[in-house]
Specification:
homodimer, alpha+beta, Phosphoribosyl-aminoimidazole Synthetase, Chain A, domain 2, 2 domains, 4-stranded mixed beta sheet, 11 helices, about 35% helix, about 25% strand
Chain lengths: ~325, ~325
């Protein structure tokens, strides 16, 4: 970096031979976050992750961040400090520098807009439009944890139960895990860079709106259909336990839960052995969840018994209003 | 550009041998704009200009734009179209491409955050910290027009008078000019590039908060003081006429009026002849308004009669609430 905060613009020296990546995300109070269930640090952290995850989905290395924030008069400067502390914690983990921004008053809620740059070797960018019929579909990590964590936070019920000591130790540990997955998701930067460096992925996207919603983007932009195997969807033990205790379908959690910030990607079937070797060598966690089909097949879900049905595509709400949507109701809509 | 809207991030090819500029600005409803005095197109246009002006102040050529917008449910999609139309109009004038963004719902007002990239030949970036004692201070264009236009818009009085035909033709023309200068300011990109290409400016900044406010940034970052000659402040005939009709001090308009988006810059005294030659050749308008002084001298204002006083530094409010601040009162605070 040649010049950061304190002038009309930041001045950076682009890496030669690299493509520059630019992404921006806006988070609005009451839409993307709720100060009843997340601290300012949590919000800052997750806002940074949302952008880091976009760079990961392009196979890039994140580099510089600009932050614009509008702050209502009801918030104190230490609230803003905490917001930045959360952002900077996520940035430090990935060696990202804050180089500029804008701070404004707000007559209404808190708004946070982050722009992140990254870079990737020219010609190795991961895009959404390269999936071909016969390619294999993979995801990183596990799915549904974030939505399970959010529902726990919003119900507040289990937290109170946990506090009162009514929950056994394992359940408490699981709940902490799910809440942490919701508040502090991991951007899959290492995985994205690996896929780009080895030219493995034919298409990639990060899961911010849930598997069913984000798969649509890859299919539309690649002009293909897809078949997902429900039995192959990776679920954490905590998510399975939560689903069982709440009498929820864990497959539904995995398909519709947003904000997991895992990567969904396709590889050609010939690359499978190479991907699996790489996963073992690097400790990265990839699960094969389905196959790219012709466009006319649409998006389908195949169950263990071999039956197949059309995949329902639901939009993801970043949070439910706990005053109006009770604990279980979020699942029965 | 390699890839624009429609993936997780935009992919651009940086120009080799150039420094990359990055700037971001957030505009909040009720703080930076008021839908009672500006249309969605006006707001979009000026939001783009605020960013273009930052790139101008670095001597750069603007290139790619990302837009994040949070929209309340009360706004229609054609409002958003108009907002983008305004932004794109400013972008087209300066060959800027929209490469990405984010759109969100808003529970509260409209928020708009723009990030703009630009580039400038490495080593020729205009910064705020290079002004030296003895340097000459210049501005582009004229000062105070935007604040005069804003006050006209907010009072509504003169517009009604204009509509009723009570104003003479020249006054109507002047008022339209001032309102247009407020709603559609010109980012001084050509001027900034000229100063950078010829290595003329020792420091530069754009005037978004008013001359007195922005001069402070150059002085603080360069570790110097400054003396401004009131008689040298460039005023448009329209602004002079408006000040006379409203019994206002035009110097105060020029010093405190924000959003003129002119450039303030310093050059070494030896570069004066070269700057003036360039101005004649290119048709650019530069006015010498003062001199860089030692830091201990502070910021001073020298009147025609030779008397000198300390420059008062006032923060700029992007608009007054017309229900609470009457037409003239804005000047007597």
């Amino acid at each position: 970096m040649l010049r950061g905060i304190g002038d009309d613009a930041a001045v950076i020296r682009p890496s030669s031979g690299h493509a520059l990546l630019l992404t921006t995300d806006l988070l609005a109070e009451g839409i993307h976050f709720d100060l009843r269930t997340a601290t300012f640090e949590d919000i800052g952290y997750k806002a940074a992750v949302a952008n880091l995850s976009d760079i990961a989905a392009m196979g890039g290395r994140p580099q510089y961040m600009l932050v614009a924030v509008a702050i209502p008069a009801s918030r104190t400067s230490s609230d803003v400090d905490r917001l930045y502390r959360g952002m900077m914690r996520a940035c430090r983990l990935h060696k990202v520098e804050l180089v500029g921004g804008d701070t404004s008053a707000s007559r209404h809620g808190l708004f946070l807009s982050i722009t992140l740059t990254g870079f990737v070797q020219a010609g190795r960018v991961l895009t959404r439009d390269g999936a071909r019929v016969g390619d294999l579909l993979y995801v990183t990590g596990t799915l549904g944890d974030s939505l399970a964590g959010l529902t726990l936070l919003e119900s507040g019920r289990d937290r109170r139960a946990a506090a009162s000591g009514r929950l056994n130790q394992r359940r408490r540990r699981y709940q902490s895990y799910l809440i942490d997955r919701h508040l502090h998701p991991t951007p899959r930067i290492k995985e994205g860079q690996l896929l780009a460096a080895h030219r493995l992925a034919t298409a990639a996207i990060d899961l911010s709106d849930g598997l069913s919603g984000d798969l649509v983007h890859i299919c539309e932009q690649s002009g293909v259909g897809a078949e997902i195997e429900t039995s192959a969807l990776p679920l954490s033990p905590a998510c399975r336990a939560y689903a069982a205790a709440s009498r929820l379908d864990p497959v539904r959690l995995a398909l519709t839960g947003g904000e997991d910030y895992e990567l969904l990607f396709s590889i050609s079937s010939g690359s499978r052995a190479k991907l699996e070797r790489l996963a073992r060598r690097t400790g990265c966690h990839f699960s094969r969840i389905g196959t790219v089909r012709p466009k006319r097949a649409g998006l389908r879900l195949r169950r263990v018994n071999g039956s197949s049905k059309r995949l329902a595509i639901a939009g993801y709400q970043h949070f439910q209003d706990p005053r109006t949507i009770p604990h279980e109701a979020a699942w029965s809509r």
